[in-house]
Design a protein that fits this description.
Number of domains: 1
Helix content: 40-55%
Shape: globular
Structural class: alpha+beta
Largest sheet: 7 strands, antiparallel
Distance between the termini: 35 Å
Oligomer: single chain
Strand content: 25-35%
CATH architecture: 3-Layer(bba) Sandwich
CATH topology: Chalcone isomerase
Radius of gyration: 18 Å
Number of helices: 7
Number of strands: 11
Amino acid sequence: MIRRILLAASLVLAQPLAALAAPVTVAGVKYEDSTQVGTSKLVLNGAGLRSKAIFKVYTAALYLPAKATTPEAVIAQPGAKRMHIVMLREINAAELGKLFARGMEDNAPREEFSKSVAGVLTMSDIFFQYKKLSPGEYFTADWVPGTGTVISVNGKQAGQPIKEPEFYSALLKIWLGKSPADTLLKEGLLGHLD
């Protein structure tokens, strides 16, 4: 009898852990439960959809060394991090770069943003070179300790790493700041919509 109770209890306890490890699908885009950035294994913190009016613009996923449920905990967490974005509609890449720069400026404290300006210019140059991003194309922004922010488009590194840690913090605030690009996306990235 005790053995059955313990077995039943272990099955009940194991179910939430299995649910946490499952891949997530957002608007048809599948995000795996973990990824590798450099030598670091990261876990999926959350994912969501960026909408504008009635249009689905892109999906995004946030990967961290350990789960975090507040913007402050995400930004303060040491180690590698990844934002992975998959386009759902065609968008002018240079315009997207400008929107990201504006989102950083709107959400980062003035001092942090001022230390990020060189990185913002580098990011804008990267997006300007691509002209447009089509549905299914993707990019990642990785924080790699000792290297900086590495931006890759469709799996290929674009430009040189951006060294300033303030840049990555300001970049995350586009989605996690006080005036996020999309409130529901913010909740999704923080794992609140599971």
